[in-house]
C-alpha cells in the first residue's frame, strides 16, 4: 500500500494539475501479505473506436501458486483523457462473459484527468483459470467538438493462497448468458428481449444468476420518463414516454424466474456534469449487478436438453414496452454433484406473474403543472425439492418481494422538473433453511432540476441518491452491507465563450462484510477541490489522501445531457 501511495504522489507531481476522478467504493478485500502477480492485460488509446473493441489473449499466471487456487483476483483499470468528450460505456467481456460494466468520467482540457478503479473479480475465478479472450468495448467518437481520447491500461493482479488465506471458494462452472460475439462486448441490446438456449450438466445441483443491465440512449434517464397518459399534457421536447418504472426480467422457457428493480446509475455527463467532477455518481465506474437463485428450476434444467433463457426489460405501461435501449447480459454460477448421475426432483410451488402490479395516477392544473405518480409491487415465490445423484436432498425456496414508487413534478412551465423515486425489496433464497442469496436493498433517488433560462442554457440540479444493500450474491462469496448516500449539486451554464459551472458532492459510505472487513469514507468536493476525505476501517489505505489541488472552476466545453431529450440551448 505504501508503494501505491508513493506512486500516487509521483503521478500527481508529474502531471501537475491533472484532475484525479474517482468513484467512492470499498477497496477489494485482498490479502496484503500474499504473493502477488501483476501483469498487463491490455493497453489501448480509444480514439474513434466505434465498432472497434480491444481484443486481447489471456493466459493464467503460473507463478502465483497452482492455477485457479488464488485467494483473490483484481483488475486495475487506469485511464487518462484530455479534451472534450462525452462519458462512454465500457464493457469488459472475458471468456464470453461480461465481468465488469463501467463508464468514463468526462475529461477536462489541458492537463486532463486520470482515474484508477480497482475491481474485485474473484467471483469469476473459474474463468481466469483457463486461457481465453478478453474484450474491452469502449465505443468512443472523435468528431468536430469531440476530441477526447481515452488512454486505457488494464492490469490483473492474482493473490496466491496460503494457509492463512485459503483459495477463494468458487462455482464448478460459469455459463454465459451473452451474445458470444468474438470482437465486441457480449451484451445484448433490448428491446426486443434477448434469448439464448442453455444446456446445463445433468448433475447440476444449484444455479445462481447474475444480471448486468443499464439504460442508455432514450432510456438513460428512465426514472424521468413520463407515463404515456400524461405525455400529451407536457410540452413536446420535455419528456420521453413509457413511464419511469423498469424491471429487468429473467425468464426460463417463457416463465418468470426472477426480476430486478434496478439502481439508477447516473453517468458523469448526466444532467449536471459539474456535480460529478471529480467524484462520480455512485456506480458510474462499477455498475451494480443483480443476483437471482435459479436452483428451484434445477429439476427442469437437468434433462440434458436446451432451455431458453430470456433477459428483457419491462415498463408499467399497458404494452410493457420500453424505448431504445438497455444493454443486458448475464451469467450462471453452476455447481454440480460429485456423482455424474443426473439430479432429480420437482418444483413443488410456483407463484410469479409475468409482470409487476403497477398503478399510475396524476394531476394537471390550470397553469399546466403536471404531477405523476407510478407505483409497482412484485412478489415471486418458487419452491423445489432437489435430489443429487449422490443422494443429497435439498429443499430450495426462492422469494422476491419488491416495491417501487416514482413521483414526478413538472412545474412553472416545466422549468422545474423533480423526481422522488424509491425502489426497495427483500430477496431471499433458502437451501434447507440456509440463506443462499440475500438481497435487501433500498435505492432512494431524489433529483430537482431548475432551468434558470427557459431553454435550459443555464440550469441547476440537485441530487440525493442512496445505495443501501445487504447482499449475499451466492453462497461462495461473503455477505456484505453497503450504505452510500450522495448529495450533489451542479450548476451549468452554456456560453459561446465556453461553458461554465460549478458543483458540490458529498458522500457518506460504509461497508462491512461477513469476512470481517470494514471500510468507511466521508469525502466531499467543492469546485473540483476535495474539501474533506476521512477513511477508516480494515480496508482503509494506511494514510489519508491529501487535498487534490484546485484546478480552475471553469468547466470548458463539457458535455451535459438533460432528461427527456431536452435541448440545452444558448
Ligand atoms: C494501477 O495501474 C497503474 C498503471 O496503469 C499504476 O500506476 C497504479 O499504481 C496501479 N494502482 C494500484 C493500486 O495497483
Ligand atoms: C492535451 O491535449 C492537447 C491538445 O491535443 C495537447 O496539446 C496537450 O499536450 C495535452 N496535454 C497533456 C497533459 O497530455
Ligand atoms: C467467432 O469467430 C469464428 C472464427 O474465428 C467464427 O467462425 C464465429 O462465427 C464467430 N462467432 C461469432 C458469434 O461471431
Ligand atoms: C431454442 O431452442 C428451441 C428448440 O430447439 C427453438 O425453438 C428456439 O428458437 C431456440 N431459441 C433460440 C433463442 O435460439
Ligand atoms: C404538484 O405537486 C406540487 C409539489 O408537491 C404541488 O405544489 C402542486 O400543487 C401539484 N400540482 C398538481 C397539479 O397536482
Ligand atoms: C413556456 O415555455 C415555452 C418554451 O420555453 C415558452 O415558449 C413560453 O413562452 C413559456 N410560457 C410562459 C407562460 O412562460
Ligand atoms: C427537492 O425539493 C424539495 C422541495 O423543495 C426538497 O424537499 C428536497 O430536499 C429537494 N431535493 C434535493 C435533492 O435537493
Ligand atoms: C456556482 O455558480 C453560481 C452562478 O455563478 C453561483 O451562484 C454559486 O454561488 C456558485 N456555487 C459555488 C459553490 O461556488
Ligand atoms: C480546497 O480545499 C481545501 C480544504 O481541503 C481548502 O483549504 C482550500 O482553500 C480549497 N481551495 C479552493 C480553491 O477552494
From TrEMBL:
Region (Disordered): 541-560
Lineage: Eukaryota, Fungi, Dikarya, Basidiomycota, Agaricomycotina
Origin species: Lyophyllum shimeji (Hon-shimeji)
Signal peptide (residue range): 1-16
Segments forming domain Peptide N-acetyl-beta-D-glucosaminyl asparaginase amidase A N-terminal: 28-352
Keywords: Signal
Protein name: Peptide N-acetyl-beta-D-glucosaminyl asparaginase amidase A
Pfam families reported for this sequence: PNGase_A_C, PNGaseA
Amino acid at each position: 500500500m505504501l508503494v501505491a501511495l508513493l506512486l500516487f504522489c509521483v503521478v500527481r507531481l508529474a502531471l501537475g494539475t491533472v484532475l484525479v476522478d474517482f468513484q467512492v467504493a470499498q477497496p477489494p478485500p485482498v490479502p496484503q501479505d500474499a504473493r502477488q502477480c501483476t501483469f498487463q492485460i491490455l493497453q489501448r488509446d480509444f480514439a474513434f473506436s466505434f465498432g472497434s473493441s480491444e481484443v486481447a489473449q489471456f493466459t493464467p499466471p503460473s507463478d502465483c501458486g497452482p492455477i485457479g487456487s488464488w485467494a483473490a483476483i483484481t483488475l486495475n483499470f487506469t485511464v487518462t483523457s484530455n479534451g472534450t468528450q462525452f462519458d462512454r460505456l465500457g464493457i469488459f467481456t472475458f471468456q464470453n462473459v461480461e465481468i465488469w460494466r463501467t463508464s468514463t468520467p468526462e475529461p477536462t482540457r489541458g492537463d486532463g484527468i486520470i482515474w484508477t478503479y480497482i475491481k474485485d473479480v474473484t467471483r469469476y475465478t473459474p474463468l481466469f483459470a483457463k486461457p481465453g479472450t478478453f474484450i474491452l468495448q469502449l465505443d468512443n467518437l472523435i468528431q468536430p467538438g469531440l476530441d477526447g481520447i481515452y488512454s486505457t491500461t488494464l492490469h490483473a493482479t492474482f493473490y496466491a493462497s496460503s494457509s492463512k488465506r485459503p483459495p477463494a471458494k468458487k462455482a464448478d462452472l460459469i455459463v454465459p448468458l451473452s451474445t458470444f460475439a468474438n470482437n465486441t462486448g457480449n451484451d445484448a441490446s433490448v428491446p426486443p428481449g434477448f434469448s439464448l438456449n442453455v444446456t446445463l450438466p445433468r448433475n447440476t445441483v444449484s444455479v445462481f444468476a447474475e444480471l448486468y443491465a443499464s439504460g442508455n440512449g432514450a432510456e438513460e434517464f428512465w426514472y424521468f420518463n413520463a407515463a404515456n397518459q400524461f405525455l400529451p399534457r407536457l410540452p413536446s421536447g420535455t419528456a420521453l414516454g413509457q413511464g419511469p418504472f423498469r424491471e429487468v426480467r429473467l425468464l426460463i422457457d417463457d416463465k418468470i424466474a426472477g426480476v430486478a428493480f434496478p439502481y439508477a446509475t447516473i453517468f458523469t455527463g448526466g444532467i449536471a456534469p459539474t456535480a460529478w467532477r471529480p467524484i462520480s455518481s455512485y456506480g458510474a465506474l462499477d455498475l451494480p449487478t443483480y443476483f437471482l437463485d435459479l436452483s428451484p428450476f434445477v429439476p427442469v434444467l437437468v434433462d440434458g436438453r436446451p432451455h431458453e433463457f430470456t433477459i428483457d426489460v419491462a415498463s408499467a405501461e399497458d404494452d410493457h414496452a420500453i424505448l431504445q435501449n438497455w444493454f443486458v447480459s448475464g451469467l450462471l454460477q453452476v455447481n454440480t454433484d460429485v456423482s455424474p448421475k443426473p439430479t432429480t426432483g420437482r418444483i413443488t410451488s410456483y407463484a410469479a406473474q409475468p409482470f409487476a402490479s403497477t398503478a399510475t395516477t396524476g394531476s394537471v392544473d390550470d397553469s399546466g403543472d403536471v404531477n405523476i405518480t407510478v407505483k409497482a409491487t412484485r412478489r415471486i415465490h418458487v419452491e423445489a425439492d432437489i435430489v443429487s445423484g449422490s443422494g443429497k436432498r435439498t429443499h430450495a425456496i426462492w422469494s422476491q418481494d419488491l416495491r417501487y414508487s416514482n413521483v414526478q413534478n413538472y412545474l412553472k412551465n416545466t422549468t422545474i422538473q423533480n423526481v422522488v423515486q424509491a425502489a426497495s425489496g427483500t430477496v431471499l433464497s433458502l437451501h434447507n433453511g440456509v440463506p443462499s442469496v440475500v438481497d435487501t436493498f433500498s435505492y432512494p433517488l431524489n433529483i430537482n432540476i431548475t432551468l434558470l433560462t427557459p431553454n435550459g442554457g443555464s440550469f441547476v440540479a440537485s441530487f440525493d441518491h442512496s445505495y443501501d444493500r445487504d447482499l449475499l450474491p451466492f453462497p461462495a462469496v461473503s455477505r456484505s452491507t453497503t450504505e452510500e448516500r450522495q448529495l450533489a449539486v451542479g450548476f451549468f451554464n452554456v456560453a459561446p465563450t465556453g461553458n461554465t459551472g460549478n458543483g458540490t458532492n458529498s458522500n457518506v459510505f460504509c461497508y462491512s462484510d461477513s469476512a470481517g472487513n470494514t471500510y468507511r469514507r466521508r469525502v466531499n468536493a467543492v469546485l473540483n477541490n476535495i474539501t474533506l476525505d476521512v477513511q477508516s476501517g480494515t480496508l482503509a489505505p494506511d494514510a489519508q489522501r491529501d487535498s487534490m489541488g484546485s484546478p480552475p472552476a471553469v468547466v470548458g466545453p463539457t458535455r451535459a445531457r438533460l432528461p427527456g431529450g431536452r435541448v440545452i440551448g444558448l
